[in-house]
Amino acid sequence: MARQSESVSQYIMELKNCAKMCNFGYFLDNPLHDCLVCGLSSYLIQMMLFIEPNLIFEMACTIALSMELAAYQTKLCSQLH
Q1: Contacts 24+ apart (CB under 8 A), 9-18
Q2: How far apart are the C-alpha atoms of 8 and 69, rounded to whole Å?
Q3: pLDDT tens digits along 19-65
Q4: Predicted TM-score of the model (pTM)
Q5: What is the DSSP string of 2-35?
Q6: What domain of life does the UniProt record list for this protein's source (predicted)?
Q7: Residue 3 has pLDDT above 80, yes or no
Q8: φ, ψ of residue 21 in degrees (nearest 5)
Q9: Would you state the pLDDT for residue 4?
Q10: For the chain, which end, N or C, has fewer CB atoms within 10 Å of the first or last residue's CB respectively?
Q11: H or E segment at 67?
């Protein structure tokens, strides 16, 4: 599970590093996808990923990273105004 201070990209890298020791082979996408979605510290990102049909790990990564970046940029803009 991602720590509160851990970014999505850090969590994804941690998952990929842990996955190197697994012998899931071709089926690695499903456990990675599940760990990513369930382990994120952001409830909002989790909900967006849960409603996405036919979600695969790489798509989940892209969506989660995009949402995290959008939240960061929104926070920066609100601090400027």
Answers
A1: 9/65, 9/68, 11/36, 11/39, 11/40, 12/36, 12/61, 12/64, 12/65, 15/39
A2: 10
A3: 888 887 778 888 898 999 999 989 999 999 999 999 999 999 999 99
A4: 0.83
A5: --TT--HHHHHHHHHHHHTT---GGGGHHHHHHH
A6: Eukaryota
A7: no
A8: -90, -5
A9: 65
A10: C
A11: helix 57-80
